[in-house]
Amino acid sequence: MKRELTCIICPRGCALTAEVEDKQVRVSGNACPRGEEYAVSECLHPVRTVTATLRVANRCDTMVSVKTERPVSKDKMPEVMQQLRNTQVNAPLFVGDVVLQEICGSRIIVTKTVL
Ligand code: SF4
Asked: Is the CB of 13 inside a 6 Å radius of any atom of ligand 1?
């Protein structure tokens, strides 16, 4: 199987071609080794950083932005979102605060301060 990808590791955005056969990936179009690493990961085990907003229970009409501290498997994204949908937090919150210890292998951290 042949896939066309755009490398998202740096702003150059190299156009990559990945040919996958028997769990082996042959990559071309990358200007550096990080592009090959990205394409192999994207073909064999794609991961994503999940971002969301949570309701701040002790503030009127207030949401706080959060993200997974590390990328999680792309197929786990619905599970992460489902758990976040049922989560509320209380202010004060500071950038980097951990609001959930473990969802699909990652902690959930705050990306906006709410006093
Ligand atoms: S392959 Fe290397 S140079 Fe090209 S976009 Fe990816 S990281 Fe940047």
From this structure: yes
